[in-house]
Amino acid sequence: GLRPRPGQEVSVKVLGALEDGGLVERDPRLTFVPGFGDVVQALELGVPTMQPGEVAFFLAAFPYGYGRPGREPDVPPEAPLLFEVTLLEVRDGLDPQPLPPTARLRLGAQRRERGNFHFARGDFSAALHSYRLALRALDGPTAAPPGPQEEEELREQRVKCFNNCAAAELKLQRVEEALVACEAALSISPDNGRALLRRGQLLAQQGRDAEAALVLRRALELDPASEAVHAELSRLVKRRSAPA
């Protein structure tokens, strides 16, 4: 068979183990596009060399696995990994066909978690890219209408992704883009405390104090015990009361 071409989506079965045999990865169907940063480098580089149906073993030094920090709690720092990979399927394009809602949720969660991995290591551009891919997966066509629980889970996942996009944009010092992401989260879940707090902080950064105060007071109504909201409101009040 033909090897995956750039831009094609692949599905693989993956087992990953430490040198002592401890299993740290088990996924019967991991779906990703090589080059998009969804998975560790060992898979990014190794899977495109495979043919459909092939089983391969990749021994990955730590830069091609979870890097110098490792992955808490199961992958120690600088740990080499052994991957057993079966290439199940190769498809054209990104999410070219409708998927069941459960598959969309799984793909979205996988990409969001990869974004969190990049974020924790300070690669905020890569994190943002993964969060956007997660949203694309969650918003794609479904093979059947989602049930009430699946619809709620899709909604919650979208809100998480938009909040994470806002955090990454803020780390990249793009305040306007972060504000847009917050507002997208609030358009789905108007009472989301995390989005309200961050929107209030961003409005305050732009000098829009009256708007920021309204947003933060709403966040405080929803969570009166929130120390972060109390602190942000206190800073805002002190700034507004300071002499010019």
From TrEMBL:
InterPro entries per record: FKBP4/5/8-like (IPR050754), PPIase_dom_sf (IPR046357), PPIase_FKBP_dom (IPR001179), TPR-like_helical_dom_sf (IPR011990), TPR_rpt (IPR019734)
Name of the protein in its database record: peptidylprolyl isomerase
Annotated catalysed reactions: [protein]-peptidylproline (omega=180) = [protein]-peptidylproline (omega=0)
Domain of life (superkingdom): Eukaryota
Keyword Nucleotidyltransferase: no
Organism this protein belongs to: Probosciger aterrimus
One record GO biological process: negative regulation of apoptotic process
Domain PPIase FKBP-type positions: 7-91
Pfam families hit by this protein: FKBP_C (PF00254), TPR_19 (PF14559)
GO cellular component: cytosol; endomembrane system; membrane; mitochondrial envelope
Molecular-function GO term, any one: protein folding chaperone
